[in-house]
Structures are given as structure tokens and as C-alpha cells.
User: Fold this.
Amino acid sequence: MSFITEHCPHCDSERVAFRSVGESRHPHGGDFRTVFFSCGKCGRGICVETTPTPNGSGSPHSIEGGLKESGKFNLVRIYPKPKPPEVPEHVPDNIAKAFREARDIAKKSWALAGVGFRITIELAVESFIDDPAQLKKKLYGQIDHLETKRIITPALKDWAHEVRLTGNKGAHDTDGLTKDDVDDLDLFTELFLVHSFTLPERMRIRRENRKTPQASS
Ligand SMILES: [Zn+2]
Assistant:
């Protein structure tokens, strides 16, 4: 029986030991084998496709110890893969990337996740500003500017300031954030993105698809 440490796509445990429960050999693929592993935490399975290295041969399921560490097998493919954290649709790529990373970091460090959510809000806010003088302002001034210009609502301004403030706390005090803080920041950031990008774009698409001209009343 061999072992492998992976991120479980089922229970989302980051580094969990999987133990092999069997293998099958490809009928026409030389020594190409698929090894079936079971998660030490949730018991559900992943498949690892292997070929032998120059030092290896035989059954990857039968070796005692770590499959990677043995150096005897190439890991060709592992599936299913863990799902990347989801991001609301129609969010610009660079902002979606920052949000996805912040959510991913939240599994390891609350303080760093706080910084990540703050960066996400910063990028989102800056994406609405085209005045170079405003771009030079700090995030605090930029958020207020968007509300003054009625680009965001007072509620969105509050959520953005909350992420700015709490994210700052994470940047300056590594013990400063709790799981509840991070859950709130995640929610405020997500709602900010949904209201700023997802809903307006959905509305635009609806209008575009509307066959008959809109009644004025
Ligand atoms: Zn699992």
C-alpha cells in the first residue's frame, strides 16, 4: 500500500494523506497504471496515473511508503482536481484573480486573507476611476469619491470602507483577525463585486436581448 499527500477535491483538506486501495494497468500502454487512492479524512477517492521512472518498475500500489518519495514512478495526472474558489461572473480578470487568491489564502492565514480582500476592493475601486488626480489618492478618498459621484451607493461605500479598515488591521497585526472577520470581509467583498460588476452586466445583457423596444411608462 502506498501513500500520497494531496489537496482533497471532496473535503477540501489542504494537505491530507491518501492511501492506495488498488490499481489497474492499461491494456495497451506499456507500464501505464492508474492507482486509486482514498482520502484519510473523508474516505473519498482520487486517481493517480503513473509510468515507471528509469529506477522503477512493477506495481505503484504495492510499494510501502510515499509514492512521490519513492522516486520510482512519474505522476502523469491526478484527478479529480480540487475546484478553484468561485468568483462572481463578469468581474474583470485581474480583480477576479485577486479575489480568488484572497479566498484561497483564507484557508491558511486570516491576516493575509484580510490584506487580499483589501487589495481586491482597491483594484475594483480603481477600475472605476479615470481621473489621474483621484488615482493618486489613498483608498479612503477614492471610495468616498465614487460615492460622491454616485458610482457606488452609500451601502457599497460602507462595505468597501469596512474591508479597507479590517484588511489594514490584518496587514499590521498578524493576530488581529478572526475567522468571523474573514468571513465578513469575504461577504462584503463578494457583494461589492456583485453590485459593481455582475448585476450591471446582467442588466446590460437583458436589455440587449430584449426584442421589443422598452415602453416609456
Ligand atoms: Zn477528503
User: Anything to note?
Assistant: Residues 8, 10-11, 13, 16, 39, 41-42, 44 surround zinc ion (CB under 6 Å). Strands lie at 2-6, 16-25, 33-39, 45-52, 65-66, 73-79. Helices lie at 67-70, 93-105, 110-126, 132-135, 139-148, 154-172, 179-209.
